[in-house]
Design brief:
7-stranded mixed beta sheet; 37% helix; alpha/beta
């Protein structure tokens, strides 16, 4: 399986870190929130002018279209906040669950591009990550994503959203991933 990254953020790094701490400590089940139910069964839009950071010729739309996997995990992350990416937590989760052998993972980032994010992505991407950068924040706006970052991870089955939420942040979502993939 392949892992891809795409990022976006319109607030300061401090706001992102504080928001991320709030997400991690929030125990409310995402199933109880209306933003989740509005997305279930929908398809996501993959703009064709978003390109891989590692392979500048590869567009997100082309990568998505040419990937035959039944399951895809799409995560939208802020480029301006490395702590918000939870790269180590994702890496641990992927290694423990072997998620990359069951689904294609696509991480997307946009917002102000910082040299540090490229360094971080290249370092993390050596073997596992294929990163996409959305310069104009189109993925976020075209898919009408919630401002609540808990709703920036989507599990797709045959390109339809079947689950919203991150398995590394929400234990209930992690349990649902386990039920789906075991």
């Amino acid at each position: 399986m392949t892992i891809s990254l795409l990022f976006s953020c319109n607030s300061s790094n401090t706001d992102e870190v504080n928001s991320n701490k709030n997400i991690e400590t929030t125990k409310q089940n995402v199933d109880d929130l209306p933003d989740v139910h509005q997305k279930l069964g929908d398809s996501l839009l993959f703009p064709d002018n978003i390109f891989s950071i590692l392979d500048k010729e590869l567009s997100l739309a082309e990568y998505h279209k040419n990937n035959p996997n039944e399951y895809k995990v799409i995560t939208f992350l802020p480029a301006t906040c490395l702590a918000c990416m939870n790269a180590e937590a994702w890496q641990n989760y992927i290694n423990e669950t072997k998620l990359d052998s069951k689904a294609t993972l696509i991480f997307i980032t946009s917002g102000e591009r910082e040299p540090m994010i490229d360094f971080f992505i290249y370092d993390q991407a050596k073997a596992q990550f294929h990163v996409f950068y959305d310069e104009k924040n189109q993925f976020y706006t075209q898919n009408k994503l919630s401002a609540d970052k808990r709703f920036h991870t989507f599990l797709l089955k045959n390109d339809k959203i079947i689950l919203v939420g991150s398995p590394i942040v929400d234990d209930g979502i992690a349990k649902k991933y386990q039920e789906i993939f075991n």
